[in-house]
Amino acid sequence: MQEFLAMGGYAPFVWSSFGLTLLVLVANLVFAWRRHARVLREIRVRNAAEVSK
């Protein structure tokens, strides 16, 4: 198991690339959820404005 985790001496490069990839994927999810919530909020506001006319 230690040999696998050491990645033949390249562990810092391999694990940092995995970590950076995970960070980018999580950030992408968070930004997508926030954008989705913002668009839904804008749609509700527009619909409310049209109904009140």
Molecular structure report:
The chain is mostly helical. The protein is 87% helix and 0% strand. It has helices at residues 2-6, 11-51. The longest helix has 41 residues, at 11-51. The radius of gyration is 22 Å and the shape is rod-shaped. The chain starts with a helix and ends with a helix.
Features:
mainly alpha, 0% strand, rod-shaped
Short summary:
The protein is mainly alpha-helical.
Shape, principal axes of CA atoms: rod-shaped
- How far is the N terminus from the C terminus? 68 Å
Largest sheet, strands/sense/barrel: none
Q: Estimate the strand proportion.
A: under 5%
Return the average pLDDT rounded to an integer.
94
- Helical segment tally? 2
- Rg over CA atoms, rounded to whole Å, is 22 Å
* Element-by-element helix/strand order: HH
Q: How many beta strands in the DSSP annotation?
A: 0
- The share of residues in helices is over 70%
What are the SSEs and their pairings?
Layout: H1 2-6, H2 11-51
